[in-house]
Amino acid sequence: MKNHGPNLYIPYSRALGEGLFELRPHGKEGIGRVSYCTQAGRRIVILHTLVKKTQRTPKSELRVAFSSMKEVKRNG
Questions:
Q1: Nearest CA to 15 among 71, 65, 74?
Q2: Which of 11, 50, 57, 73 has the smallest CB count inside 10 Å?
């Protein structure tokens, strides 16, 4: 993200909607997901991380990320 900013695309990043994005790192422990949003001034805010155990990201994990993003945007 340092080199490309928030403009990363699949397979490295994916838009989840409403301004929420996820990084998609792969490592020894499995497939990771890092939810983030952006704010003015090219500021990137990491909201939630997890190592996936299933093919789809659980809805409960997405709810946490969306809730965190709303709080960040509300409080600036």
A1: 65
A2: 11
Task: Tell me the DSSP string of 14-69.
Answer: EEEETTEEEE--EETTEEEEEEEEEETTTEEEEEEEEEESSSSPPHHHHHHHHHHH
What pLDDT, in 10s, does the model give residues 39-60?
876 788 999 999 988 888 889 9
pTM above 0.85, yes or no: no
Within-domain flag for 43 = yes
Specify the long-range contacts of residues 39-46, CB closer than 8 Å, at least 24 apart: 39/72, 39/73, 39/76, 42/5, 42/6, 44/1, 44/6, 45/69, 45/72
For the record, the structure tokens of 49 come out as 């991380």
Q: Is 1 helix (H, G, I), strand (E, B) or coil?
A: coil
Asked, for residue 4, whether it belongs to a domain, the answer is: no
